[in-house]
UniProtKB/TrEMBL annotation, chain A:
Swiss-Prot/TrEMBL keywords: FAD, Flavoprotein, Oxidoreductase
PROSITE patterns with a match to the protein in the record: FAD_PCMH
Name recorded for this polypeptide: Glycolate oxidase subunit GlcD
MF terms in GO: FAD binding; oxidoreductase activity
Organism this protein belongs to: Pararhizobium antarcticum
Automatic annotation (TrEMBL), chain B:
Organism placement in taxonomy: Bacteria, Pseudomonadati, Pseudomonadota, Alphaproteobacteria, Hyphomicrobiales
Protein name: 2-hydroxy-acid oxidase
Origin species: Pararhizobium antarcticum
Alphabetic keyword roster: FAD, Flavoprotein
Annotated GO MF terms: catalytic activity; FAD binding
Short name of any one Pfam family annotated for the protein: FAD_binding_4
Gene3D superfamilies: 3.30.465.10
Keyword Transmembrane helix assigned: no
InterPro entries for this protein: FAD-bd_PCMH, FAD-bd_PCMH-like_sf, FAD-bd_PCMH_sub2, FAD-linked_Oxase-like_C, Oxid_FAD_bind_N
Domain of life of the native organism: Bacteria
Domain FAD-binding PCMH-type per the UniProt entry, residue ranges: 1-181
UniProt keyword annotation of Flavoprotein present: yes
SUPFAM superfamilies: FAD-binding/transporter-associated domain-like (SSF56176), FAD-linked oxidases, C-terminal domain (SSF55103)
């Protein structure tokens, strides 16, 4: 049975001075921007990785970059850990605080500052939700490409922290490929601007380091992102198969042939049943595996691409092909897919894995995943971004049964190691957080992690920024 | 007299660097040397990747390749073209412009983040770099990233190494993403627009659902240098479309109809399209056998022409535009005018200017890279020190 994942032990020097710290922080913030009452802190004790929780020391909800800087300067001076938080939708525990930490929440930084269609950029505050950006520019024919399932709630700041992806990243890339600039507050309150409306920036690619750094390098308060002109049309098509292996090999051949749809999503039978019951999307129920393949462009382009994909699917034993006949049907197909996590949560507790594997390994890893979960006496539903090999087995368990929870965690660890051994990685888009932290040495040698940690220290020499995350607690540089 | 080190293995490279770090003795990291600008005046030892060559693995179905850093770019492109795949970011070959010889290497491409016209739709070299192996300044062999498209496992060190111009570490192996070669391509040419009109036309084209994959403006002073003068008379604003034949045909019609409002529209076939965009990528008009100062300037797309207009009032300058106007290739007629140029870059909204060619004396006297704000420069210096604590790596590459 795995040990519970440890947080850094709280600093007594910080806990003992709690009241003073709260009083000082309230001086730095406008009224209503500091949460310190026990009941008020409860919503901040965990994120979407609900198996772990800690009530933080206090929660700051700054309204300006200057306030973020003032808080960081203060925390840095007194060696108080800081945990940045977007909407708290992290699936890896990236936003779970520690009991001696000040949480800096982005929720009040929620304005869209500039939309520039001629340069196709939007500059937004970090607490703006992912979907808000696309909605703000939709009527004018644009969208922001990365689309994590939690896009209704998750913030662009959190997206940058985790380098979030989504279903449509196969064609458009993940956050790092769509991010042009940030305003970043460093550990000591220094405010720097990286990038901007130009396509590249001078000097070292610090923006590339910051994206996906899980709140360890600084706090992003503003971001400039790329907007893309919406395609003329988009059409999701359902392909049903009698086995996951057939579906997996079909994906590999589609990509191998040089066809890149906007999205290729995979669902196995348990996932189909869960999502259909929730969204009534019209998914076929007599198949073992389902691919949602979305093509876009002009009618002619979609027709041509679909013809090729249908021919390939035929070679892999496709048993059902269903094209969406209307915008409404297309929306339902995506609603079912995007509600997969929420719908699963209605029937059981689950932990969601995020390993990525080379496409040639997809079928093998799916089969082994089933074996691992069965061996632990648990159930699994698979729903994931097949086109880029980013797998999301949902391991179902009962959070109130400690043995069940431990088995789920153990099965999850085995699956992630399987992904790494198959030539992949621990996390494609959810981040390491605390969840995968102690598996990092399975993917990296200590010397690899040492190099990452020294770079981390260039940004945050005293390790006050989200310090319990990403890097195993053992093997860290001496303070 | 400087020594040339050409290690045949990663381990050998690590030993050389480890020894240099103990002395400590400076090393200049070199790929093919085709983008070297700053002469090695101080006679530092050179560490070359020339003999770290070869494709390590290539799986066309996964659209990824792993190659040793010194592998000639041409070798890689030849292997890819057999499988109708490509490097979507179109790395440039700057030898004709810089007057350098040698063999461009895949390591050099990533170390300089060399990215061509497709940049705004397919990303830069850095966006396509999935993983690296490198030797840091202490002689340690380190890996970062991996070989899958989506990967947020730990800090993305591959990004900061891309474009670091040999200042942080010696790349030994790179793993990168590939894309299929489009079935066909076409170029729409709009003739007769001035720089400001061209900027408006390109912004309109990129706001349409036609997936333009190249947008450049070639003023009359440079137009004749492209495709042997085959572009129609008058300044040429050029837009590239790529994809399935049926789709390109439909999109081309749509785009031509919209562009007719701006100027006279004509088209180029796939063969001419390939040549034209290759010449734009390689900065053909300024492969002029001179040392006249040449700048690569990156600004917001709509700011490019404003920058050039402002400079024209002050000094002799020639320019053309890629990346919808955001990448300006700027040739000064006499002095490099670094201060003036950077003043105007700031005035039009910010960006950066890199001097990529000039007579030796001017190079020595000019800050060739854009100076960064103090806080950013200090942070970058701290990062450099984490990769290369003894400061042995000397950077001499541009691109």
């Amino acid at each position: 049975m795995p040990d519970k994942i440890a947080f850094l032990p709280p600093k007594k020097s910080v806990l003992d001075r709690r009241d003073i710290i709260v009083a000082d922080l309230s001086d730095l913030l406008p009224k209503g921007c500091l949460v310190s009452e026990p009941r008020g802190l409860v919503p901040f004790e965990t994120d979407a990785f609900i198996a772990y929780r800690n009530v933080p020391l206090a929660v700051a909800l700054p309204e300006t970059t200057a306030q973020v800087a003032a808080i960081l300067k203060y925390c840095s001076r007194y060696d108080i850990p800081v945990v940045p938080r977007g909407a708290g939708t992290s699936l890896s525990g990236g936003a779970i605080p520690q009991s001696d930490a000040v949480v800096i929440g982005l929720s009040k930084l929620s304005r869209i500052l500039d939309v520039d269609y001629a340069n196709r950029t939007a500059t937004v505050q970090a607490g703006v939700t992912n979907l808000n950006i696309s909605e703000a520019v939709s009527a004018d024919g644009y969208f922001y490409a990365p689309d994590p399932s939690s896009q209704l709630a998750c913030t662009i700041g959190g997206n940058i922290g985790m380098n979030s992806g989504g279903a449509h990243c196969l064609k458009y890339g993940v956050t790092t490929n769509n991010l042009l600039g940030v305003k970043l507050v460093l550990f000591d309150g220094t405010i720097i601007d990286l990038g901007g409306k130009a396509l590249d920036a001078p000097g070292l690619d610090l923006l590339g380091l910051v994206c996906g750094s899980e709140g360890q390098l600084g706090i992003v308060t503003e971001a400039t992102v790329r907007l893309i002109a919406k395609p003329e049309g988009a059409r999701p098509v359902l392909f049903g198969f009698q086995s996951s292996e057939e579906a997996g090999s079909c994906v590999a051949e589609i990509i191998g042939t040089g066809i890149i749809p906007v999205a290729i999503e995979f669902m196995d039978k348990p996932a189909i049943e869960i999502c259909e019951a929730f969204a009534h999307a019209g998914y076929p129920m007599d198949v073992e595996a389902l691919l949602i393949v979305e093509v876009e462009g002009s009618e002619a382009e979609m027709d041509a691409m679909l013809a090729s994909i249908i021919a390939i699917a035929g070679r892999h034993g496709v048993s059902t092909i269903r094209e969406s006949q209307s915008a409404n049907e297309a929306a339902l197909i995506w609603k079912g897919r995007k509600s997969a996590f929420g719908a699963t949560g209605r029937i059981a507790d689950y932990i969601c894995m995020d390993g990525t594997v080379p496409l040639s390994q997809l079928s093998y890893v799916l089969r082994k995943t089933g074996e691992i979960v069965a061996r632990h006496g648990l159930r699994v539903a698979n729903v994931f971004h097949a086109g880029d090999g980013n797998m999301h087995p949902l391991i179902l368990y009962n959070i109130n049964d400690p043995e069940d929870a431990a088995r789920a965690e153990e099965a999850g660890n085995e699956i992630l190691k399987l992904c790494v051994d198959a030539g992949g990685c621990l996390t494609g888009e959810h981040g390491v957080g605390i969840e995968k932290r102690d598996l990092m040495l399975h993917q990296f040698a200590q010397v690899d992690l040492d190099q990452q940690m020294t770079v981390r220290a260039a940004f945050d020499p005293h390790w006050i920024m989200n310090p319990s995350k990403v890097f195993p607690l053992e093997g860290r540089p001496a303070a | 007299m400087s020594d040339l080190h050409e290690p045949v293995s990663e381990d050998a490279a690590a030993r050389i660097i480890h020894t240099a770090s103990i002395v400590p003795a400076p090393l200049v990291i070199r790929g093919g040397g085709t983008r070297s600008l700053v002469p090695n005046d101080e006679q530092h030892d050179v560490l070359s990747s020339a003999r770290l060559s070869g494709i390590v693995s290539y799986n066309p179905a996964e659209m990824t390749m792993t190659a040793k850093s010194g592998t000639p770019l041409a070798d890689i492109l030849a292997v890819l073209s057999e499988k109708r795949q490509m490097l979507s970011f179109e790395p440039s070959d700057l030898r004709p412009v810089l007057g350098t010889t040698g063999t461009p290497t895949i390591g050099g491409v990533f170390a300089t983040n060399a990215s061509g016209p497709r940049r705004f739709i397919a990303g830069a070299a850095r966006d396509n770099l999935l993983g690296v192996r490198f030797v840091n300044g202490s002689g340690e062999i380190v890996k970062a990233g991996g070989r899958v498209m989506k990967n947020v496992t730990g800090l993305d060190l591959a990004k900061v190494l891309a474009g670091s111009r040999g200042s942080l570490a010696f790349l030994t192996e790179v793993t990168f993403r590939l894309l299929p070669v489009p079935e066909t391509s076409a170029t729409i040419v709009i003739s007769g627009l001035d720089d400001a009109q061209a900027t408006a036309a390109m912004a309109t084209a990129l706001s349409m659902s036609v997936e333009v994959s190249g947008a450049a403006h070639l003023p009359e002073t440079v137009r004749g240098h492209f495709i042997d003068g085959a572009l129609p008379a008058q300044p040429a604003t050029v837009l590239r479309l790529e994809g399935l034949s049926a789709s390109v045909a439909v999109r081309s019609e749509k785009l031509q109809a919209a562009m007719a409002a701006f100027g006279l529209v004509s088209t180029l076939d796939p063969g001419m399209t390939d040549r034209l965009w290759g010449e734009i990528r390689d900065v053909r008009p300024y492969a002029d056998q001179t040392e006249r100062p040449l700048w690569r300037v990156s600004v917001a797309p709509t700011a490019g022409h404003q920058l050039v207009a402002a400079l024209r009032l002050e000094t002799g300058v020639d320019a053309f535009y890629d990346w919808q106007g955001g990448l300006v290739w700027l040739r000064m007629e006499a002095d490099a005018e670094a201060g003036l140029l950077r003043h105007f870059v700031k005035a039009v909204g910010g960006g950066h200017a890199t001097l990529i060619r000039a007579p030796a004396a001017m190079l020595a006297a000019t800050p060739i890279l854009q100076p960064e704000p103090d806080a950013v420069a200090a942070l970058s210096a701290r990062i450099k020190a984490k990769f290369d604590p003894k400061g042995i790596f000397r950077s001499g590459q541009v691109g």
